[in-house]
Design brief:
CATH architecture: 3-layer Sandwich
Structural class: alpha+beta
Shape: globular
Oligomer: single chain
Helix content: 10-25%
CATH topology: Rieske Iron-sulfur Protein
Number of helices: 3
Number of domains: 1
Largest sheet: 5 strands, mixed
Length: 217
């Protein structure tokens, strides 16, 4: 089953301020129902503020997800500047198709980043480069903030969010505690998140097929 969403923010996998994953075992009391309704409303509001395509795809069977099976993704339907979200090991994984303009921003703010060269082991060796990718065009990352596990929201350049700087070139914003990441998932300095976003193991099976969770040939 697949669905499309006309907005860029990743609001389909969790509410912006809700840690991932949610605890489904909590009791279904009135207070929790009220909290969930508020969370859903906040996610809906966040989805109205930007205008870059998002494609959302459900992962394989529940059993496959629980076992951590690799997830095969069709990336041929992601438009330039768009992002697809899939589930792997119970986590949201983003596949962002970056445009040349988006890629051009990556070498313009190294001094503002905490780990611009990706020295810390938050990615496989083949993604320890300027774009943190095998193919520069496609950025693959686990969509979980490295601070406390919230789910950041994608924010394109020019976003009016007052928590972002005026020269924001695009990237990801975590509304829980304000961590910001660039379009390669690198965290900015003086933010709560201690490391860059995680890049999961992955490999390409063809021009438009990506395998997440397995990088063995």
């Amino acid at each position: 089953m697949a669905a499309t969403h006309p907005e860029y923010p990743m609001t389909d996998t969790s509410c912006g301020t809700t840690p991932w994953p949610r605890d489904s075992a909590l009791p279904d009391d009135p207070q929790r129902r009220l909290w969930l309704a508020a969370c859903g409303l906040a996610g809906g509001v966040a989805a109205t503020g930007t205008a870059v395509p998002l494609v959302s795809t459900l992962a394989p069977s529940e059993r496959a997800r629980a076992q951590g099976a690799a997830v095969e993704v069709d990336i041929g339907d992601i438009p330039p500047g768009g992002m697809k979200t899939v589930e792997w090991r119970g986590k949201p994984v983003w596949v962002l198709r970056r445009t040349p303009a988006m890629l051009a921003t990556l070498d313009a703010h190294d001094s503002a980043l905490a780990d611009p060269a990706s020295a810390r082991d938050q990615q496989p060796a083949y993604a320890r480069n300027a774009t943190r990718a095998i193919r520069d065009e496609f950025f693959v990352a686990v969509g979980i903030c490295t601070h406390l596990g919230c789910s950041p929201t994608a924010m394109p350049a020019g976003s009016s969010n007052p928590a972002l700087p005026a020269d924001w070139a695009g990237g990801f914003f975590c509304p829980c505690h304000g961590s910001t990441f660039d379009l390669a998932g690198r965290v900015f300095r003086n933010k709560p998140a201690p490391t860059n976003l995680e890049v999961p193991p992955h490999r390409y099976l063809g021009a438009t097929r990506l395998l997440i969770g397995d990088d063995t040939a």
